[in-house]
Amino acid sequence: TQLLEQSPQFLSIQEGENLTVYCNSSSVFSSLQWYRQEPGEGPVLLVTVVTGGEVKKLKRLTFQFGDARKDSSLHITAAQPGDTGLYLCAGRSNAGGTSYGKLTFGQGTILTVHP
Amino acid sequence: NAGVTQTPKFQVLKTGQSMTLQCAQDMNHEYMSWYRQDPGMGLRLIHYSVGAGITDQGEVPNGYNVSRSTTEDFPLRLLSAAPSQTSVYFCASRVGQRGGNTIYFGEGSWLTVV
Fold it and tell me: CA-based diameter of chain A, in Å?
């Protein structure tokens, strides 16, 4: 069973601070995704990274995929209250020859940004 | 465009009762799946389907059945509910093997088994 360890589990910061969320595994993934989930809603895809070492930026959010495709990080610059939510990483594996590409989710990071 | 629609939003069941969580998507997606979300455990795959008439087990399939008679619908059945099945359930869909990686989730169904 592939596992994705996400840390920290909880993060409470003040508006304007920077933060980093980590996602680590001993397994290699063909791609890794980051989702954001707000209370009462389903997760919404933020980004997909595919290539080892890849860095993607989405406004104040920077996503990085590790060189070995076993880990990833999400960095938020100058956090705002609107960034509050649950952040989930998910690794995709095509192991077993299936075309489906099952996702393995991390436990999630609950981020609270205080005004 | 409704996307992925789940019903009901909230449900309370007694142990041993059966029920079906409905899921429909209007995006003509090949792939559909059901996840459950529990505190501190992320989302875990229950069952998935790569097309009408084709289903397979995910990580935690015990106690759940699915069927895919049409492209649009993917119901999840609990035959004899247990308190361990208290959770938030999410249906999801994506284009398919030749499509992109974007997964679209429904808004979730909160199930409590007492």
Answer: 48
Q: B62, B77 in Cβ contact below 8 A?
A: no
Listed in sequence order, the DSSP H helices in A32-95 are none
Predicted confidence at residue A113, as pLDDT, reads: 97
- Is the dihedral angle over the CA atoms B51, A106, B91, B82 positive or is it negative? positive
Q: Choose the closest CB to B58 out of A33, A102, A106.
A: A102
* pLDDT at residue A17, as a whole number: 97
C-alpha–C-alpha distance, residues A37 and B77, integer Å:
25
What DSSP string describes B4-42? Answer: EEEE-SEEEE-TT--EEEEEEESS--SEEEEEEE-TTS-
| CB spacing of A100 vs B4 below 8 angstroms | no
Structure-token pair, residue A12: 């409470």
Bridge partners of residue A7, in order along the sequence = A22
pLDDT at A96 over 60: no
Residues 36-65 of B with CB under 8 A from A: 40-45, 48, 50, 56, 58-59
CB neighbours of A56 closer than 8 A, spacing ≥ 6? A47, A49, A62, A63, A64
Cβ–Cβ below 8 Å for A31 and B105: no
User: Which residue of chain A has the CA closest to B38?
Assistant: A107
> How does pLDDT run across A23-61, given as a tens digit for each residue?
999 989 989 999 999 988 999 999 999 999 999 999 999
Burial of A106 (0-12, 13-18, 19+ CB in 10 A): buried
